[in-house]
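Quarterly update from the structural biology core.
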Amino acid sequence: MQQKQFANSGEAREMLLRLEEFYDEPVLPLHHFCRAMELWFDCIGKNNTDPALRRHDREQGYGYFQFLNQMRIDIRKSNLLGRLLYGKEPLRTRKCPVHKGHYDGEAMFFKKCPHECDGTGWLRERESDRGYTGISVHEARVEDGEFKIKDRDSGKWKKPED
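Predicted structure, tokenized:
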């Protein structure tokens, strides 16, 4: 387990306050931002569907609220958002010569693309970028009564690390 850099949560909150002063804007852990977006989705939906909240047919979000559930799914599944927010990658601008800007799940999870597009269809901008999926998919099986996964790099079957 990774060692925490702060003695307690109070010390971490103090650091956030100092960062807010430095940037002159709010600084939040990413999960706070995600929670706020989820709440916003829910409020827009309720304002446009709950008879007790509707006053007229032009509530905030009236023109798009019926699409919010599909948008929510797309945001949660977005590899691009994962790379930008969690992986801290820049936007990829060069198409993979094999996948030509189109997603390929086989290349993302099982057979690495020789051009390292990570199945996104877009080439990494920096050598230090490692690709980001947000999930880890492995081939698995039970062998001699033990659960094992196939290492994508070596192709060997081994017990998952604890």
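Residues 30-49 form the longest helix (20 residues).
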